[in-house]
Design brief:
The protein has about 110 residues and is mainly alpha-helical. It has six helices and no strands. It is elongated.
Length: about 110
């Protein structure tokens, strides 16, 4: 039986040394799993008063995407880097911290 699933590739592990390649690879992986937009924002969209079932499902999916992005970023850094980001609550905060600490403002702008 054929499968339409894309094979899961091992994510690159960030050690603080392979910065530029890691950024490109992680962007692609997060986009491939439809998590990049969720990673860019810190708050899920607010539910309206008396939401429909479709709105509740959409909200739940957006919250889940943020949790998945956070989990992926936690799992693709080595232990030393993890200790620096473990106190951050969102994938966006982690991404910004890594950008600031390892890639610098000037290099980040060029990327």
């Amino acid at each position: 039986m054929a499968s339409n699933n894309v094979p899961l590739l091992a994510p690159p592990v960030f050690t603080g040394k392979n910065d530029e390649m890691w950024v490109v690879k992680m962007r692609r992986q997060l986009k491939a799993f439809d998590l990049w937009k969720a990673m860019e924002t810190t708050e899920p969209p607010a539910l309206e008063e008396n939401p429909t079932v479709a709105q509740i499902r959409f909200h739940s999916k957006q919250v889940a995407k943020r949790a998945k992005a956070l989990t992926i970023l936690h799992s693709v850094v080595d232990d030393d880097v993890f200790m620096r980001i473990s106190n951050l609550d969102t994938a966006r905060e982690i991404w910004e911290k890594l950008q600031e600490e390892f890639f610098g403002n000037e290099r980040t702008k060029k990327m």
